[in-house]
Amino acid sequence: MKRLLLYVHFNKYDNISEHVYYQLEHMKPLFSKVVFISNSQLSQLEVEKLRQKDLIDDFIQRENVGYDFAAWHDGMSQVGFENLKDYDSVTAMNDTCFGPLWDMAPLYDKYESDESVDFWGMTNHRAIDAGHIYIDEHLQSYFMSFKKSIIVSEVFQNFWKKVEAYTDVQKVIDNYETKYTKIFTEAGFKYQAVLNTVPIADNFFHSNFTIHYPHVLLDNGVPFIKIKTFDLTQHLSPYLLKAIEERSEYPSQLILDHMSDVSLPTPPYLLDRKVLTQVPQKYSNTKKVAVHLHTFYVDLLEEFLDQFKHFHFDYDLFLTTDSESKKQEIKAILEKTGKTAKVFITGNRGRDIIPMLKLKEELASYDYIGHFHTKKSPEYPYWVGDSWRNELYQMLIEPADNILANLESRDNLGLVIADIPSFFRYTKIVDPWNENRFADDMNDLWERMNLDRHIDFNSLDTFIMSYGTFIWFKKDTLQPLFDLELTADEIPAEPIPQHTILHSIERILVYLAWANRYDYAISKNEIYITPFVDNTVLNIRPELMPNTYVNFDHIGGIKGALKYIYRGPGSAIKYIIKRMVMKFKS
User: Fold this and answer.
1) d(CA 217, CA 145)
2) How many C-alpha atoms does 240 have within 13 Å on its Cβ side?
3) CB 138 within 8 A of CB 182
4) Closest CA to 37 of 69, 82, 85
């Protein structure tokens, strides 16, 4: 059979996701010719990759006007409308689906051998007459295959020749997507769908099965699942992922990677899939690794050096602290323990974050960086600080060999954070009202870093972050943060209030990785806590919550308490003025 595939691609970030390569690899053997039509502005490197993999025969670059119907028109025009008649079938599809989940050859054999079928596809949409809206029954256009019997017809040729490049997507839907099936069937041609929803539609509330009922698609052997399903019906996504893995050999990581890339990387259904796994291959120990430890509490240094014995790889150690006297103490401990490190005095502003950023030049040549600090929580009782630190050891220091193996084996993995320490599950500290107070500063940071991707942190309820900012990362992942020129007056003095640029930086790291096209992973907390704890804690009414105790003995005594009182209202007044100015400008 001589078959033609017209494949339309669009990616809002002007790249090609791995699921597209997989799709073409599994579709290409069925076709004599593949025309790849991109409505995105792809780099020459991306196009060459398609050619080197021998996935396409022709390439068309165009503006995203007219959407997929105008793109298919341009593909037909380049092949030649008269030349289309030389093919036994012409398939028009786009990259809006994951799949194929199964071999496509049997479907082509089935419908091409059936003389009663002139064109076919995956799913259809029943007619709707709701008074204020009317939609004709139609074969959904993400996959359409036309046989020679209809290709050579005048109605087919005229329809496609007259397709206009509308800028309004609704016009494309009204004039083409929901009309072409009726035009062809009224001309006497017949179609079939792998899943004919018309006889069963009355049994379901929604008429678009591709979005709302993916299980019906799977049950009926439809080999494609719409990408929109994962965004629009997120409550079904965990079950859909599991079903795809159970029923097919399709690599679900392609779904996870694409959804993390094109939408926000933090919806609930993705979070569970972000948990770091044990990879079979060991870390090669061929990369340059830096470990940064901000050593404010020098009495914890030996404990950390002992923890670093879990690292079975070569690394350079960088220690920062805030005074000359502490530097001398650190050097004495290094000499005593026989350890080698470079020690820097970075001042007593910026907690652990700013000291790391001040090492910009020193860290520039490293592939992987681990960032830690001698964590204590003096404002809380003894057990809290110790439990928090020990859990961070368990999550990001003890499994470091496997973390580096993951970073090495996955090119797109750029950041590894800790799971939530148990303290934050027993105590309702993080809530959407309080988290939203960081959003404006996070938006400001985002704008200052001049990132290509848009995000409005005010639209998020909470933020995925590493509590305590213990992290492993690839340098490029957070490079815009290192390049940010922070002024001295932006960095608060101790004791710091609750809402500062430091807290905003802590919360922005995962999203910064996303902006740089890197994924993140969560290192599992091995302490099991029943979800009933979360359910109970998160549903405590605000008026019943106990006040959080702050021990000012550890942060300046009376002087520290006065600063705390002063900075809290000051921060609130600054926020009010800022919002009023923004409202006035708008």
Assistant:
1) 18
2) 29
3) yes
4) 69
With 0-12 CB in 10 A as exposed, 13-18 as middle and 19+ as buried, what is 57?
middle
Q: Write phi, then psi, for 233 (nearest 5 degrees).
A: -130, 65
Instruction: Please give the model's pTM, rounded to 2 decimal places.
Output: 0.88
CA distance 274 to 521: 5
CATH 3.90.550 fits 289-548, yes or no: yes
Residue labelled with tokens 């992922």: 241
Q: Identity (one letter) of the amino acid at 263?
A: S
The model's confidence at residue 428, banded by pLDDT at 50, 70 and 90, is confident
Q: Is residue 107's pLDDT more than 70? A: yes
Residue 57's H or E segment, with its range, is none
For the chain, domain boundaries: 3-198, 289-548, 550-586
The residues, any chain, with a CB within 8 Å of residue 62's CB and separated by 6 or more, are 37, 38, 39, 71, 74
- Cα 579 to Cα 49, 431, 443, 454, 498: the distances in Å are 48, 21, 13, 21, 18
Domains 3-198 and 289-548 equal at CATH topology level? yes
Give the residue carrying structure tokens 């099991």.
Answer: 528
**Rounded to whole angstroms, how far apart are CA atoms 372 and 376?**
12
Instruction: Tell me how far the alpha carbon of residue 437 is from its chain's centroid.
Output: 23
- Sign (positive/negative) of CA torsion 306, 308, 314, 317? negative
**Rounded Cα gap, residues 8 and 11, in angstroms:** 10
* Residue pair 523/277 in contact by the 8 Å Cβ criterion: no
The values of phi and psi at residue 94, to 5°, are -130, 180
Q: Domain spanning 3-198 has what CATH number?
A: 3.90.550.10
Q: Tens digits of per-residue pLDDT, 339-390? A: 999 999 998 888 899 999 999 999 999 999 999 999 887 666 567 778 889 9
Band (pLDDT 50/70/90 cuts) for residue 571 is: low
Phi then psi for 415, rounded to 5 degrees?
-145, 135
